[in-house]
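Following up on my earlier thread - several people asked me to post the actual chain instead of describing it. Fair enough. Here it is, all 158 residues.
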Amino acid sequence: MRLALFQPDIPQNTGALIRLAACLGVPLDIIEPCGFLLDDKRLRRAGLDYHDKAELRRHSSWEAYHQHLNGRLLLLTTRGGTAYTDFDYERGDTLLLGRESAGVPDAVHDAATARLVIPLRPETRSLNVALAGAMALGEALRQTAGFPGGFTGKGTET
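Reply from S.P.:
Thanks for posting it. Predicted structure:
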């Protein structure tokens, strides 16, 4: 399982996702350009001291990232057709999160194997990208028994 961020805009969200990836042992891809410098102090503050514990890979562009993609690409999007809890995840999947300000362009949307949505109340637009990533990653790790320490997510250890 992997997380990927498409041209993130907000350093605090990226820092929180770096921390999430480090704590859960999930590699994180950052597809540039970003809307901030990767040494931004807000990024460091949100990620605390987890940056050195995270498996982080930077890609200069969507094209550079897409060339090296292995496995299925699962896009979290408000335009998704399948609820993230109704999808059958596999260990080699990558969960892609779009830009906070604009999501992803149509070409990236079309390249996804599946487009997943977090069902929300109709009067709301979207969740914070770090929260959405944590929710979907938690479900994917639960389904694939991918949590650290042998936890299956079903209340028993393997």
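The first helix runs from residue 11 to 24. That should answer part of your original question.
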